[in-house]
Amino acid sequence: MAEALVSTLLELFASIAVREAEQEIRLVVGVDTEVRKLEGKLRIIQAVLDDAEKKQLKDKAVKLWLKKFKDTSYEMDDVLDEWNTALIKSEIEKNEENAENEPIAKKRKVWSFFPSPSFLFRQVNKLVLRHDIAHKIKELSGNIDELFKERVGYGFDLSE
Length: 160
What we know:
The structure is a single chain. The chain is about 85% helix and about 0% strand. It is mainly α. Helix 1 crosses helix 4. It is flat and about 65 Å long. It starts with a helix and ends in a 6-residue tail after the last helix. The mean pLDDT is about 75.
C-alpha cells in the first residue's frame, strides 16, 4: 500500500518536473521571438506615451500612470540593449577565438571533433543569457499587460 502511494507521488512529482522543464525550455528557445515581440511593444508604448504626455497636464492620475509606463519602457529598452550587446560580444569572442586557434587547428585535425573548453563555456553563457533575458521579458510582458489594462481607463489613443 505504501509503495503504491510512494510510486504515485513520484509519478506526480516527475510529471510536474517535466512540465516545468518543458516550459523553461520553450521560454529559452523562444527568446528570439520574444525579443522581436518586445521591440514591437516598445513601438506601441511610444505611441501611447505620446498621447499620455498631452493628457498629463490635465490629470494627476495620468501623470502617475505615465511615470510607471515610462519606467517600464526604459526597462524594456535596457533588456533589448542587454540582448543586442550580448549578441555582439558573443560574435566578437567567437571571431577572436577563431583567429587565435587558426594556426593550432591545422596541427589538431585529429582532435577537432572535441569541442574546446572555451567553446563549451561560451555555449553555457549563451544559454544562461537566453534564460535570463527570457525571464526578464516574461516579467516585463506582465507589467505591460497591466499598464495596457489601466490605459483603457484613461482613454489613451494608440495613434502616432
